[in-house]
Amino acid sequence: MTTDLLPALTAHVMATAHANPRTCHCATATLAAREDATVVRHAGTVAKAHAPDADPAELTLRLTVATRLPGILLPPLTPTPTELHGRLVTHWPYGTPVDPDDPDAAPWEAAATLLALLHRAPAPTAVPPMRGPAKAAHAIALLRATAPDHPATAPVLHAWATLPPWARGEAPMPDTATLCHGDLHLGQLIRHPAHNGPWLLIDVDDLGTGVPEWDLARPAAWYACGLLAPDEWHRFLTAYRTAGGPAVPPDGDPWTALDAPARALTAQTAARAVTKAVAAGRPLDEVERSLVDACARMGPVCPPAPSS
Amino acid sequence: MQCPKCRAPMHTYNRNGVQIEQCSGCRGIFLDYGELESLTRLESQWSQPAPPAPPAAPQAYPAAPAPAWGAPHGGHHGHHRHKSFGHMLFSS
């Protein structure tokens, strides 16, 4: 059970980090303790207990991709997951994350360049589909179940209804070859070796083949909702194009490509915000309202112009 | 916010998702960047149910393109980063 998982995972990571953990005085830190992931660090080793419904075969394929694409993704310490208290556990070297207290120092260029490299890399093994649309659909289902009468729910569901079936996880994605991360945000970047090493992408849980525009769509949605400064969005987009990323045309308006996935990420983020606010019994804050307002403004999606 | 013309307080109104500020004294209206385009677009949507491609709205001055459903920039979150957004940057 979850209550037993953290101490067990802590003992496990200590045993993984050292041949003889009893003699060590290294610090142990819990890096994340969510329903879908528990992450513990000891010395230079990190152990992650994945979501209870994680599939061992699919996770192993995703680990293989990370092993085969060093320089883009952080390679795991062990090629396959182990099992602990009914959860799949993977092992990783520790790297320095983006400082959450200093988001102005966020490595937007590095994030975009790594995505472009990932999108251009031939898949080193057969991988399952990227899970972005499925996760968005889950957030919408949770909104429907937990906040059916909240005034923000109707505009979010309206925005969701404007999306093509693939973006709602209801049909296969139109791209089944491009490698995608599936869940990009600033918590998905670390420097390895710690402090001075290059930036790398982490968290392969949603990685797979799919529509690469999805990986740009969260920053795009933040920008569209007026949350991410135009300068940061410009730096991100320019670095992606400079690195030859295939998701957007090399110049001109990127929104023909980004519109549908950015709508999906806006609706997903709004759905999560409303669900969380309802659970906490509080009103939406200004940032959360700006997501819902964007949902309310969404008209029908125009089909992308055929590429010339 | 104070009216730049007569210094009376300005009140915020929401018109179809577009926030406009109107002066309580001289009744003058202040539009944030991009809001004029949003209002124009809403007006055209009113008479024409299927609008053309979103990024077609002309910009008041050169700026990165954004979708029609986007928020006007330079508005409420332009310069300082809201704590809630700081958290959002790091979450799924």
Automatic annotation (TrEMBL), chain B:
Domain annotation Transcription factor zinc-finger: ranges: 2-40
Sections of the chain in a coiled coil: none
Segments of this protein annotated with the region Disordered: 45-92
A Pfam family matched in the record: Zn_ribbon_TFIIB
Biased composition (Basic residues): 74-85
Segments of skewed composition (Low complexity): 58-71
Superkingdom of the organism of origin: Bacteria
Protein name: Zf-TFIIB domain-containing protein
Organism: Streptomyces atrovirens
